[in-house]
Amino acid sequence: MATIPRYRRTLQDALRRAISQFPAVVLTGPRQSGKTTLLRYQFGKTHRYMSVEPPDVRAAAAADPRGFLEMYPPPVIFDEIQHAPELLPYVKEWIDGHRTRPGQFLLTGSQNLLLMDRVTETLAGRAAMLRLLPLSRREAVRGLSMPFPWESIGALQARHPESSANLWRSFLRGGYPELVAHPGRDPSLWHSSYVQTYLERDVRTLRQVGDLTTFQAFLRLAASRSGQLFNMAGVARDLGVAVNTVKAWISVLEATFQVLVLRPYHANVGKRLVKTPKLYFTDTGTLCHLAGLRDSDHAAAGPLGGVILETAVLSEISRTLTHRGTVPEIYFWRTASGSEVDFIVVENGRLIPIEVKLSATPRPQMADGIRMFQEDLGKKSGPGYVVHLGSTRLPLAPNIVALPFSEL
Q1: 151 burial via Cβ count (<10 Å: 0-12, 13-18, 19+)
Q2: What are the residue ranges spanned by the domains of the chain?
Q3: How far apart are CA 381 and CA 371, in angstroms?
Q4: Which of 31, 84, 377, 393 qualifies as a cystine partner to 381, CB 3.0-4.6 A?
Q5: pLDDT digits (tens, 9 = 90+) for 315-357
Q6: Are residues 132 and 33 in contact, defined by beta-carbon separation less than 8 angstroms?
Q7: Cis? peptide before 75, omega within 30° of 0
């Protein structure tokens, strides 16, 4: 019997649309984000289920893929399909013989790099690609799938803000369903086990990492530089490795959904803009764990407090948009003279500038970077928002609103 999810995943709507239109749906995302639970709950009565991760199942699929498909014919869920890539050509063959039947194969995978290469090569035009990330706060706290404030005036309605202590405890835990569903579970122990499992399974599969100790040092260094301009040459020098090694490790983190590499937004505005990207971890709990933060008070008052809040805002935007079935377009903006905006969200052709401030008291000068961006981009820029930890929503300047984090 399928496990009943404690939280409604907003990706369910996109899943239903995809399964009604495509012969196959590929659901990717980090380990433990709830992919199996969601598919078995939503489609467990209509689809067989088979995990191809166990070694004996993997061997059987590799030895006789056609016979394996005959034993587990569609409609079927194949979990962790990256472990049995030999099945994909035979899935393609079956689809090509039954093109009028949508939703026959539901495939999950935790390694985006290898899986995307295989799927693009084998199932092009036959499979919808969706991602399930850890719980957004809308899913975990409010159970809502509301528009963002810049998408609908109706979304701007006051909500009761979460207490500061509870908010920072939730940042320390992060959004993985198991930790959200079990508040008594030790987040430090869980994240420690998660990182170790991730290192053993995914890093060694995707790249030959000879020295795991150095890679772990790279993870901690990346956490300490999260939200900053990420100088790969400097990181490589500090670790004593080649720049190409750092590039490869970042690609591993991206492929396994552990980090987002934010690139600067460039437009022909007659100004020198920085070209170096920023790196953010996708989960506040992962960031806090790798940074050695075990206490929510220390997280809030420490030097990474602002970065943790930025990570929380970025995660909320990225997860909410991703769970609609879209690929988020998010950048940052920074000029050589130092003017900057934390996030630029591209929505329906508009550029939405968002600044994040750790303060609970929004002030007009907090909007200086957004004002500069709006002046430079003109009509391309939409309304701007300064997200803060207070409880008051108020105008800071024409077309710029101070928005409590609780209302994001």
Answers
A1: middle
A2: 11-131, 137-407
A3: 10
A4: 377
A5: 999 999 999 999 999 999 998 888 899 999 998 889 999 999 9
A6: yes
A7: yes
